Amino acid sequence: SRPDPTRRAALRLPLVQGAVGLTGAGVLAMVVGGLPAAAFLAGATVIAAGFAAFAWRTAGRSPVAPAGRMFTRLLVGTVLKWLVIGAGLVLAMNGAGLPAGFVLGGALTAFLVSMIGLPWLLR
Q1: Cβ atoms of 77 and 54 closer than 8 Å
Q2: Over the stretch 99-112, which tens digit does the pLDDT of each residue have?
Q3: Is residue 101 within a helix (H) or strand (E), and if so which, with residue range?
Q4: Helical residues (DSSP H) of 32-99, grouped into ranges
Q5: CA 10 from chain center: how many Å?
Q6: CA distances (Å), 30 to each of 23, 24, 92, in order?
Q7: What is the rounded average pLDDT for all residues in the chain?
Q8: If exposure means fewest CB atoms within 10 Å of the residue's CB, which of 22, 58, 64, 102 is most exposed?
Q9: Which residues contact 74 (CB under 8 A, 6 or more apart)?
């Protein structure tokens, strides 16, 4: 039987977000330097980690479960995703002292990858 495309897409999305973050960081490293590139990569990585946590809690489990359990997985996955993203962005900007604009630029780019890339990944 063929694997569920939703499950496959949810697990691949963080990989695509990370790849786009690496590409953007490489371009920034050549254009403006290492610190902005590291900040961009950190922002994209935080978003990818949040989406990976969500995929682990939802698509990484058995797709056959009672509706209540599936809804609980969805809620826990959503809360976990936003906790990872919130804490990660705060640590990147305040804890590591990376330039906030580039951190947020990387985060925004990774979010755009999820909006643009997810329909493509669902094929």
Answers
A1: yes
A2: 999 999 999 999 99
A3: helix 100-121
A4: 34-57, 67-90
A5: 10
A6: 11, 10, 21
A7: 91
A8: 64
A9: 58
Query: Does residue 41 carry a pLDDT above 90?
Result: yes
- Structure tokens, 56: 């682990």
Shortest CA distance to 105 belongs to which of 55, 32, 13, 53?
32
What's the whole-number mean pLDDT along residues 3-7? 74
Q: Are 1 and 39 in contact (CB under 8 A)?
A: no
Q: pTM here? A: 0.89
Token couple for 111: 């979010």
Tokens of 26: 């490489």
Structure tokens at 62: 């058995």
Burial class (CB in 10 A: 0-12, 13-18, 19+), 94: exposed
Query: What's the start-to-end Cα distance of the chain, in Å?
Result: 16
In this structure, what token pair is assigned to residue 34?
């290492």
* Residue corresponding to tokens 């490293």: 29
